[in-house]
Amino acid sequence: MRRLLPALLAAAALALAPLPAAAHKVVAAIFATNPAIEGEVGFSNGDMAADIPIEVVDPDGNPLGTTRTDADGVFLFTPTQRVTHVFRADLGAGHVAEITVAADDLPADLGQQAAAPAEGSPAAATAAVPADLDQRIAQAVRAEVKPLRKDLMAFKEHKNLESILGGIGYIMGLFGLGFYLAARRRLNTR
Amino acid sequence: MHIVDGALAPEVVIGGAVLAVGGLAMGLKSLPTEKIPAAGVLSAAFFVASLIHVPIGPSSVHLILGGLAGLVLGWAAFPALFVGLLLQAVFFGFGGLTVLGVNTVNIALPAVLVWYLCRHGLQSQRPGVAAAWGALGGGLAIALTTACVGLALALSGDQFLPAARLVFLAHIPVMIIEALISGAAVLLAHRVKPELFATLATRP
User: Distance from A85 to chain B by nearest Cα, in Å?
Assistant: First the structure.
């Protein structure tokens, strides 16, 4: 056993040294709901899920439509009904992601886009301002924030040594407890 | 290899949980005091092994070590692997809590099958023969696990053959690596602790 221990420690050190992020966890996020629902799907190591069909259903499972991710794993969906939207992506081999957008988070002017510009007076008062200013600002902010979001996602999925050692500690403690209980039972019956 | 929350039909999740509880009861009953430390060490090894990734093609797969756990522990592999899976789900978000039962069965059941198949071969006096049985067990456990994952997906609506073939092909490198690791572990155990597999066989 004494010879075995250094070998085990060396193996553990080798095993722990290159710790890449897990590739098999699917992450999905919604990052805009106005005017269309925009979200992304990918693996937790930063690979995005390109060209994956996304199924959109309501909470009862009734289909609302479908969409596809682009090369960056980003998908767009324009809601037409004020119900909770559930987005399902199936990446195969048991990798699925599901994200929900509550009905309250949908754009306020849903289905009224055609009616809005017709109201003459407010538009005339702000004639110097481009009509789609809100959207342009939203787009610019989205583009600026995108790398930050990616970093945040990578950070959330990062596994540090502490949690690994913590997990091993839990296992040792749990089995130690089992060992204690078994030993006590044996002592009592003796 | 970990199926995530929401991928499976409720019937499969419940069925997996029932099977896992049965396996856990069986494992705890057949876990003698002397084997508890071994179960703990293998549970910890399983917990860490999933963090070691083997990049293949666009994706990557990770080690499982289910076969080795089965060869040493027999039915006691159920509690050992269950604890490892539970902590992986809590700490790293691998798999999920609702599919814990299915994942436990997918990994621990092949481990037990491999134990029944290989335990006599492991007691061979010749280290080479025992190591070969260990390697066979390590590789076979992964192959059976991919079949179980494919079956769980098939019962939930996927086509069985495409789903199983995809998982199986992705894990061929893992099978080879695990066969080597299990073979080497059995060889090492033969050198330094030859009674390991013999005592476990007489007292399953």
Answer: 16
Q: In this predicted model, what pLDDT tens digit does every residue of A58-108 receive, in sequence order?
A: 877 777 777 877 777 777 777 777 777 788 777 765 567 777 777 777 766
Q: Report the residue from A1, A19, A183 with minimal CB separation from B51.
A: A19
Which residues of chain A neighbour B37 with C-beta distances below 8 Å? 175, 179
Q: Is the Cβ pair B94, A22 closer than 8 Å?
A: yes
Name the residue among B31, B32, B6 with its Cα closest to residue B95: B6
Give dist(CA B163, CA A93) in Å, integer.
6
A94/B193 CB distance under 8 A? no
Ranges of residues in chain B with a pLDDT under 70 are 1, 54-60, 158-160, 163, 197-204
pLDDT digits (tens, 9 = 90+) for B146-192: 888 888 888 877 666 776 777 788 788 888 888 998 999 888 888 88
CA distance B201 to B189: 15
Global ipTM: 0.71
Of A100, A124, A96, the C-alpha closest to A27 is A96
Distance of CA A4 to the CA centre of its chain: 42
CA–CA gap between residue B35 and residue B77 (Å, rounded): 11
Instruction: Compare CB distances from B36 to A26, A95, A178 and report the shortest one's residue.
Output: A178
Domains and CATH numbers, chain B: 10-202 (1.10.1760.20)
**Interface contact B53-A22, CB threshold 8 A:** yes
